[in-house]
User: Fold this.
Amino acid sequence: MARAIAAEASVKARRAEALGARLPPLMVAAERVAATVAQGVHGRRRVGQGDSFWQFRPFVTGDPTSRIDWRQSAKSERAFIRETEWEAAQTVAVWRDGSASMRWRSRGATVDKAERAGLLLLALASLLLRGGERVVLMEAGARPIAGLPGLDRLAEAIGADRSGAGEALSGLPPTIPVPRHARVVLFGDFLSPLDEVQAGVGRLAAIPVTGHLLQVLDPAEAVLPYTGRIRFRGVERETNTLIPRVETIRDEYGRRLAAHQAGLAAICSAAGFSFGVHRTDHPPETALLALYTALTAR
Assistant:
């Protein structure tokens, strides 16, 4: 009995050590990406209660006269209202697909989809936490974090499914409680049937929440660069498929992928979500800037 407990503890220690070895580079990369994007954005750019000045706008009927900035108004013949940035913290729930398909990588790619999605998730969390928002991982028992010190805990949580348990995970967000009117950000390849994706997004929209869905693809999935006789093996219990000449189906593959992405965009639009696509051979900064801009849009 004692030997079994010691063996189990040893296995857990090795896993923890391996996870710890992966986290620092991921954290460093996420902070670098976040810092790059942070140079191009500032604040939440939403009107509300706060101390940070945002802009002046003309006084309109219905505005209380107590909000008029008389010093600015004295410079012209019009009255102006002084607006501040919205400073109430908001909860943003984040989720990354941990299923087996996310760990597939073509020979020409430098990172797999799960690694890139994790990088973007942490970088986005860093930006949000710097701005005073709360971030919570969509998993059972997770608690919202506030402030950059909580980023390490988030990195450890998303790294936990890299030990092999992720093979049993679904490619769709779990059915767990999410705060009403929160923002939700979903990272995955979303290659599941559209009706399954619609059901998952629809459950979130009914809470109600809004947010963003980012499809992360390997470059080979985007363009199907193969030629000749290729056997495609399923990574999530799909049957294997042998294609005698892959180049003959490339155009049809492209049309079906485009149709699938159009379907994802339509699902997101109907649910009040925004939608984007990112390839792992493209700079993560570009995807993060677009995502952060979509979340903080007025």
